[in-house]
């Protein structure tokens, strides 16, 4: 066994004759344990909140969304459709028409986006899971499914035939407008369902059938705003993306789930980094106790160290003893902290000890990456702290007896 490691283990296990040093050592170890446990618990809690937040967008987001680089729409040619169907990992795709509209009902109006979807959309998005009330729309009809926020703003319900709902979109083209009907395309709709996901989406979309949106916007056959694609195996998304780019050419932008929610992912990643840095600072403060503990141990063992030095042990080897002791203390504290943190997170996951609402437990997620992050952080900081403390050993210190 390595000489420095052997002595370091002995020093770590044995008690000092000075109770103050023992007390400082215990405080240092407890600080590392609590710091590691706290960091793991916070990261697990944030992972749970992240998954909980993304769950709402993942319900409605496709694996890929294809848009034109230039312009609001593009022509889906038969060749493009054939090439897409030839890609093995594509389960199916839905043709989408999307445009900003004005929705009115009995003097009330809201700005929203009309989203015309074909029959495949129900297979890409689990529409039943987002419906708050009513049912999904039927193709080739003037039916709509509105968001909860839009329905509230217009004071409309489901299958309310007594209330006319009108959808307006500006007509394309140029020329002087002399009458209102020259400025807008419009259709009267019947609301058959209300969906609820989150506040932003509930106030954004009004779903209708593809043909209805096509007629409203005067789109040609196979003219679409985008394609939403569902994959058979999302793990092969990188290879499939390349195949789609080859099939469609360079005039199209392909977005995955994270790119569709770029602002949300950026916010979550920033918050995660901020939380990590804050609790890493707490760990750094806790590791000052480790430095103090090692320095006190060096002073307590000075006579023994002087004997080792006189017997021929180099200064570097003596320093290495206390360096190893600090690393062992940090690693041991980190391991115990991880076990405690895992136990607390598992209790929350299994028994919902902390509740956000009477029916909603605080979400947590146990992920391997969080174990790695905490352990690596503790180890790196422990190595730095141990290096600082062990560097206090010098020839002058050993000669002062």
TrEMBL record:
Keywords: Cell membrane, Membrane, Transmembrane, Transmembrane helix. Residues 277-395 form the ABC3 transporter permease C-terminal domain. Its main location: membrane. It is a multi-pass membrane protein. The chain crosses the membrane at residues 21-46, 273-299, 320-344, 364-385. It is found in: Cell membrane. Belongs to the ABC-4 integral membrane protein family. LolC/E subfamily. This is ABC transporter permease. It comes from Aurantibacter aestuarii.
